[in-house]
Amino acid sequence: MDPEVLASLGVEGAAAAAHALSLPAEAYGNDAQLEVMWAMKAYNHAEVYFNLISSVDPKYLKLTKNDDMIYSKFREDFPDFNIKILDPELLKSAEGKEKWRPFCNHFETLVEDFNYGTLLRLDCEKDYTEENTIFATRIQFFAVEIARNREGYNSGVYNASLKAKQQKKAQS
Question: Which CATH class is domain 3-156?
Fold first, then answer.
């Protein structure tokens, strides 16, 4: 998932990839190249998001124009959901999917690409790694990350980054 791979496509290749990713799922079979493009897109999104919460105090971030609605509905439907360290079973099991489906579908017309695949960190105090990442829908990502930002759980990432920058500056 090296960014150089995407760059190696060139402008025309990147445009073709973007077009391919915008087509409905029914237009494809199991195409390995398409899966790689989706994985790269998800990885790039994750990298940008982690850099963002490392650089800006997350409590001030607005991820969508519907943040207030997403957060309210999430906490209404999942009042006790542990967002600090996610249990993948609560998202991925048959029972978990049944519970999430109405929530996700509520945002079908309100959040663009609400059901696109996105990477989500399990432990909010850690970076995206193979062990700390699951695949979730975009609306699940928004629900969890908006809650983490508003409830202060992502502040640890920002504070650790700020501390590292201050130490680096002090050493120079």
Answer: mainly alpha
